[in-house]
Amino acid sequence: MSQKSHSHAQWSSRLAFTLAAVGSAVGLGNIWKFPYMVGQSGGAAFVLVYLVCIALIGLPILMSEWLLGRLGQKNPIATMSEISRRLKRSKAWTLVGVGGVLGAYLILSFYSVIGGWALIYTGYSASGIFTDLTSDSVGNLFSGLLASPGTLLLWHSVFMILTIAVVMGGVAGGLERAAKTLMPALGILLVVLVIYAATTPGFAAGVNYLFNPDWSKLNGEVVLAAMGHAFFTLSLGMGIMMAYGSYLSDDVNIGRTALTVVVMDTVIALLAGMAIFPIVFSNGLDAASGPGLIFQTLPLAFGHMTGGSVFGVLFFLLLVFAAWTSAISLLEPIVEWLEERSSLNRVGATLVAGLAVWLLGVASVLSFNLWSGVAPLGIFAHFAGMTVFDLLDYVTSKVMLPLTGLAAVIFVAWKMGRDEVRSQLNMSDGAFSLWHFIARFIAPLGVLAVFVSGLWI
Ligand code: PHE
User: Fold this and answer.
1) Residue pair 207/19 in contact by the 8 Å Cβ criterion
2) 326 CB within 6 A, ligand 1
3) Residue 7: which pLDDT band, with cuts at 50, 70 and 90?
């Protein structure tokens, strides 16, 4: 991906493109964030709303972003200004690109801290400490980690260095190729975990929790969380998919490819849920325990299954890898933007951007210990008790990504000619009419309705 600002190459194949998009989409969002959000939101009702959001909002917006990128053939900000000039639309549409760069910056700062957790847990599993864990000690292990700002900082730094190294060296292509074997390996390991989970007494309860909705758990807040996560998990609303789209050759079918990415992303998340909740119920753990959920459940499984330490190391390594490919896709647009806006070369721009991300990440590190009682927006009831980490997550997933994605789909569905969109998407008449209807009405109204209910009701 990283050569984009130098020579504008096209993807060698649909496969290479799909892998890069999956590499960005599949990450901590699927395996770390999805399960804990399900747990905090009370289970299946959240899952079902999330699936509806993926299908009716995520998929059309993903297609819109790729379509814009392919038309504009530039970075997201330049793409938006170029297309709006050509179509004689307001320059304000460029903000879609700007919002994306800012969003990527904020997200990567805390994403890297969690990437650090995955690194530490790789080490924990290699050291064999999972073998004697009980439900209590697995919790203590995790809370001990959170209480240690030095350790968190160290591994946040390591994760950032890994990310910077790849973006700086422009070797992301190699990493994308590695994704070809590593992503399926991650999928297979998740299946192994689900099979293990199926042997535990809590399996039925876990699956029930995940798929059998208790609608009384549904409220505006839950729906907003589900929609925000649909954006986060598909890497939408940040110009990232738009940038990828600029590498897409004309013969690639956007609809079919988008469907592939969305299905893979969703399957990985659901598998993670099916592995984790049975363990939660079998061990009497708290499903609503928050961001530590996978770190307090999976080690128990690895500690008890045969070959668990090997699986444990492999699993956390693959998780690191999935997080890494996503982190690279987050750093790339910031670096590109800096490179264009300043006199810095690629190495300089990567170092400056990486350092800025790392610095903000320190605030997230501290949110779990020294600043755990600091709620910067605590004077507003809505944000009471939210740490810096909570706020960064809230503002990006629940506000910025949906707004930027909304603007992208409105642009495509309302500001571009129907025929131009049509020729880009290359679908049958019926399928296109349905898509256009969803893109014009369902997706934008859906985002707006969720906003109103989640923020004000
Ligand atoms: N989609 C990634 C994940 O689920 C996170 C991400 C968000 C990556 C936004 C890029 C942009 O982990």
Assistant:
1) no
2) yes
3) very low
- pLDDT of 309 > 80? The answer is yes
Would you give the DSSP letter of residue 378?
T
Asked if 229 contacts 29 with a C-beta cutoff of 8 angstroms, the reply is yes
Centre of ligand 1 from the C-alpha of residue 312, in Å: 23
The predicted structure's pLDDT at residue 155: 98
- Distance CA(16)–CA(23), nearest Å, equals 10
CATH number of the 14-454 domain: 1.10.4160
Q: Please, what is the average pLDDT of the chain? A: 91
User: Quick one: which of 318, 320, 263, 334 has its CA closest to 22?
Assistant: 263
Q: Report the chain's C-alpha Rg in angstroms.
A: 21
Q: What is the pTM of this model?
A: 0.93
Domain ranges of the chain: 14-454
State in Å: Cα 328 to ligand 1 middle.
10
Q: Is 98 left (phi over 0), alpha (psi -120 to 50) or beta?
A: alpha
Q: Which residue's CA is the closest to the ligand 1 atom numbered 7? A: 235
* Overall average pLDDT of the 256-268 stretch: 96
Tokens of 210: 């995940």
- State both tokens at 157: 């730094």
412 Cα–ligand 1 center, Å:
23
